[in-house]
Amino acid sequence: xxxxxxxxxPLKEPIGFIKxxxxxxxxxxxxxxxxxxxxxxxxxxxxxxxxxxxFTANFQYPFRLNTVSIxxxxxxxxxSAIYLMGDxxxxxxxxxxxxxxxxxxxxxxxxxxxxxxxxxxxGNRGPMIDFVVTVIFAFxxxxxxxxxxxxxxxxxxxxxxxxxxxxxxxxxELNKCTPGGVSGMGSLNVSVVFGFLNVILWCGNAWFVxxxxxxxxxxxPQQDPANVAPPPQNP
Length: 235
Hints:
The protein has helices at about 15-35, 90-115, 115-120, 125-160, 160-165, 185-210; strands spanning about 35-45, 50-60, 70, 80-85, 175-180. The chain is of the alpha+beta class. A hairpin with a 6-residue loop joins strand 1 (about 35-45) and strand 2.
C-alpha cells in the first residue's frame, strides 16, 4: 500500500500495547454476553393430581424473557401459557454493540500504528481524532457496563424460580410449585467485569494518546534563518 511503513515498535509502547489489551478485552466482553444461553425450571403439582411436572424455559441473548414460555397452556386447567417477565435486550444489545465497535476500532488503530505511524505523528489531526474517539469509548464503556450490570441483576431476579413462583397466579392457588433449578450465570458476571476493565483501559489509553497531541506538547515554532544573528567573529 502507498505510504505504508511496517513497524512493530509501537506495540512495545503504551499506546500500542494498551490497544492490544483493549482488543482482547472487547472480544471477551461481547463473547461472554452474546454467547450465553441458560434455563430455569419449575416443578408443578396440580391440586387434582398426584404427579408433579417439570417445566423448563430456555433463555439466551438478547434476553427477551417476556417471549419465553415456562408453563404451557392447559396445565392445571389454565387456558393460556405463562411467560417469564422482563425484557433486558436494550442493555444487553447496547453492551455488545459497544464491545463490537471497540473491537473494530482497535483493529483500525493498530493498523494505523503499525503501518502509518509516520503519517499519524506527522500532523496534529490524527492524534486529536484518536484522543476524542478514545474518550468517547471510555464514556460509552462506563454507561453500557453500568446499564448491563443493572440489567443482569434484574435478569437474575426474573429467572430465579422462587421469584417466578411468587409472580404467577397458578402457584398461588391450591397447586404446588417448587423450584426446579436455574443455570449459573458466571459468564455474564465475567462480561460485566470485562466491561469495567475496559473503562479503566480506555481511560488510561486516553492519557497516552493525549500525549501524542499538540495539546500536550505544542509544536516548536521554526526559526527564520534570516532573523538568526550570525555568531561573533574573533578579532
